[in-house]
Structure formats: C-alpha cells, structure tokens
Amino acid sequence: MPSVLDDRTVFLVPPCDSDADGELTVQGARQSRALGDAFGDVPLMAVYTGPGQAERDTGEAVAQRHGLVVRRKPGLVVHRGELLSRAVHRITEVFETMARAGPGRTILVVAEVAVARIVLSHCWDLSPSPDDQLQLGPGSITEITVAPSRYVVARLNDTSHLRPSTPA
Predict the structure, then answer these.
(1) How far, in Å, CA of 5 to CA of 16, rounded?
(2) Quick one: pLDDT band at residue 168, thresholds 50, 70, 90?
(3) Residues of the chain with pLDDT > 70: what percent?
(4) 4-159: CATH homologous superfamily?
(5) Could you tell me if 109 and 76 are in contact, meaning their C-beta atoms sit under 8 angstroms apart?
(6) Distance (Å, rounded) from C-alpha 57 to C-alpha 16?
(7) What average pLDDT does the chain have?
(8) R_g over Cα of the chain
(9) Domain chopping of the chain, boundaries
(10) pTM for this one?
(11) Please, how many CA atoms are within 13 Å of residue 54, restricted to the half-sphere of its CB?
(12) Are the C-beta atoms of 38 and 161 separated by less than 8 Å?
C-alpha cells in the first residue's frame, strides 16, 4: 500500500515579468530574487524550465540558491498555431514524467502561463480551453502534491513572497 512518503511536490511558477524580447525587466529581476528567497529552505531536487529566456532566468534565481543546474524542457511550450490537442498531449506527458520521478521528490517547474494552465487542467481532470480565464501572476507559486493516484493543488497563484516588505 502506498504511503505518504511516496508523495512528491511540484512547484509550478510562471516566469517573472519580462519584456517583448523575453528578457527579465527590472521588476522581473526583483521578482526572481524574491522567488529565490521564498524557496531558500525548500529541499528542491531539481529545477526545470520551458525553453524561454525569462523561464530560464527565473529558474536560475532559485537553482543557484540550491546549487542546482537548470534543466530545460523544450516540450514545455505552446507553439503559435499549434493544435491545442497536440500541445496538451506533449505537455502532460512531460509533466507526468517529471512529477512522477522518484518518491518524496520536490521539484520546481518554471513554465509559461499557457503551459501552467494545461498542467492545472490535467491535475483537476478538466479539458483545457484556449480561452481559459485562470489568471496566474508572474513569479506566482502554485504547489501540487503528486500522490500515487491523484494530484492535489495545495496552493494556487500565491504572490505573498512578491509583496514589498514594510519598514518596521
């Protein structure tokens, strides 16, 4: 019988704020540092990102704190003009492989919002829609528990780590 020790945790994060060229903005750089701080004590085993530069830069801010190397996953992207069914199949396959590797494993996945919506639809056993209204902020944290037979979204679109601290 599976135990609680078999559970895995996936943290899903959209890339921090970026410009039209995919480079982090000044705000995005601040967000990525705050994200690195937020994951400072989390025992991450791996950091995966989609192919975009903002995704990589966002993941690097966390990976460096843990002595990890960012692992790019080219399949974590929705290509312009791509059939939704193809994107969903590819993205859920990549997600399943990462999420189900090794018991008790905790990973971070930085992927564009469209990818995050597909992953969440998969976790909730819903059909993804191209006009999905689910809003996920740049650098927000969504926490998914990967149990042996189900997914549990424990935290969704958490931006509390991005709020400026007020002076004492």
Answers:
(1) 32
(2) very low
(3) 90
(4) Phosphoglycerate mutase-like (3.40.50.1240)
(5) yes
(6) 8
(7) 90
(8) 15
(9) 4-159
(10) 0.91
(11) 25
(12) yes
